[in-house]
Predict the structure.
Amino acid sequence: KQVQSKMTSFFGVA
Amino acid sequence: MFEARLLQGSILKKALEGIRELITSGNWECSSAGISMQGMDPSHVALTVLMLQNDLFDQFRCDRNVTLGLNHATFSKILKCAANDDIITLKAEDQPDECNLLFQSANDDKTSDFIIKLTDIDQETLGIPDTEYAATVKVPSVEFQRICRDLSQFGDTIIISVKKGCVEFSGTGEIGSAKIALKESGNVDDDEKVSVEMDKDTPCSLSFASRYLNYFTKATSLSDTVTLQLCPEHPLVVSYDIGDNGSLKYYLAPKIEE
């Protein structure tokens, strides 16, 4: 089963 | 004082069409280098980054950095009052609470003067790391738009697979499945070309929500070609160049195995 990941788990807050 | 004059006003109109459905409002950061805006959709699945460098404008002045907190639905409504061949000038004082938009018709017999109220938006900015992409694919933007539209009829996920000399888009769902393969085109000169560059020869394949890809293709009118960059377990990058001095880039988080 595939789940949608989030951008915030790839790019940190600058 | 900030003032920027864009001879090709249609660029701003098209950019807003590619932004407004994903980001309801954003901080347009104006500096001497140009204008940039970054924002995520409410579910944080996609990041949109607009860059308009100063030499995209035929006049550009920004004495001190200025932040224009804009509601994109409002901004879009005002831009809809501009003709495609209007010259658009943006003006704002330092620490502004409003932004002045001036539209001049091509034959200069009509000028429209708008004031848009700015809003305070406290939005976190994401740092975008440099990434070695396993694959960089260039396809005609209209072709990509058509593929995303056609495949999203089959399901909510589009798988993008790149191997040597070929990029494949596939979708599956209740009604069945579909696979569209584009081969690298030989005639490298014209815009209809497809190019596939692999970092190594390892094929890579990632799954993405078709809904977001269809949002991104609202920016199709900005550029004849669109660039897709893929790397396993990384967001997809979908880039539309704006002439030689700007870009509208989308980063889409992949669907991953639970």
Remarks:
- Residues 6 and 12 of chain A are 11 Å apart (CA to CA).
- Chain A has a mean pLDDT of 93.
- Chain A touches chain B at residues 1-14 (CB under 8 Å).
